[in-house]
Specification:
Radius of gyration: 49 Å
Largest sheet: none
Order of helices and strands: HHH
Structural class: mainly alpha
Distance between the termini: 88 Å
Oligomer: single chain
Length: 272
């Protein structure tokens, strides 16, 4: 009778040791899951850091393009100032040409008066008449040359005005392009902020919510793997745990899908 009692106690002790072993293995499995989850979170953190670095490079590139447009606009303004200066020079040259033409007209009148006097004195000043005729020819040639120069200056002034008009149109076009590029840059910047906010929400749901019921399901599954002699009540309770974790996982999955759909819809709307 005493031996049977000892044997029964040994059986009970053996069962308790087996149960403690199962608890130890379960704790080790949960510890491994926690380690994997921590490693997964570190990987996700690195991915987000890489995505942020890429976004910063893109923003720096767009700022560089904006600076280039500003430099081009500054060069266009300098070119316009140069064109205005050239236009003023041409106007000054034209004014000088007009003064010279007036002076030549006065000189021509003087020569005509001298020619009249020469004709009156024709009877005794034939040689003087020839000299005055030659001087008149020279004056006419000079006048023709001055008129030609005046026409050249007028043509140059017309060309300068056309060039100035073209420069003004180019300046306006560059300013409009610069404004459009700046507005597009602001839209892209706002879209990236909203997109990264949505990614943070998805990361939080995945790393903090979804992983928890999965860890519970894996822990219960491990218990089913290491032991098969559960009673009906124990199996029913285990199934209840699995169902509860599955329902929680389903809710978190729906929340994650809603977040992803909202982010995709917002991205599609921004692109359109």
């Amino acid at each position: 009778m005493g031996l049977k009692t000892i044997l029964d106690e040994l059986v009970i002790l053996k069962r308790e040791l087996a149960f403690q072993k199962i608890n130890i293995e379960t704790s080790q499995a949960e510890l491994e899951l926690v380690k994997k989850e921590f490693a997964f979170q570190n990987q996700e953190k690195q991915k987000r850091a890489d995505e942020l670095a890429i976004a910063n490079k893109e923003l720096a590139f767009q700022n560089g393009e904006k600076k280039k447009r500003a430099d081009e606009l500054a060069l266009a303004n300098k070119e316009l100032a140069f064109q205005n200066l050239e236009k003023q020079k041409r106007a000054d040259e034209l004014a000088l040409a007009n003064k010279e033409l007036a002076f030549q007209n006065v000189e021509k009148q003087k020569r005509a008066d001298e020619l009249t006097i020469a004709n009156r004195e024709l009877s005794f000043q034939n040689s003087e008449k020839q000299k005055r005729a030659e001087e008149l020819t020279v004056a006419n040639n000079e006048l023709y040359y001055q008129n030609s120069e005046k026409q050249i200056r007028a043509d140059e002034l017309t060309i300068a005005n056309k060039e100035l008009s073209y420069q003004n149109k180019e300046k306006q076009r560059k300013a409009e392009e610069l404004t459009t590029a700046y507005n597009e840059l602001k839209k892209v910047e706002e879209h990236l902020k909203e997109y990264f906010h949505g990614l943070k929400e998805m990361t939080f749901i995945t790393s903090h919510k979804v992983r928890q019921p999965i860890a519970h399901i894996l822990g219960v599954a491990h218990l089913l793997d290491v032991r098969v002699d559960y009673s009906y009540e124990e199996v029913k309770k285990i199934i209840g745990y699995l169902k509860k974790s599955a329902l929680i996982l389903d809710d978190y999955t729906k929340e994650l899908m809603d977040c992803m759909n909202a982010l995709d819809y917002k991205s599609e709307f921004e692109v359109k």
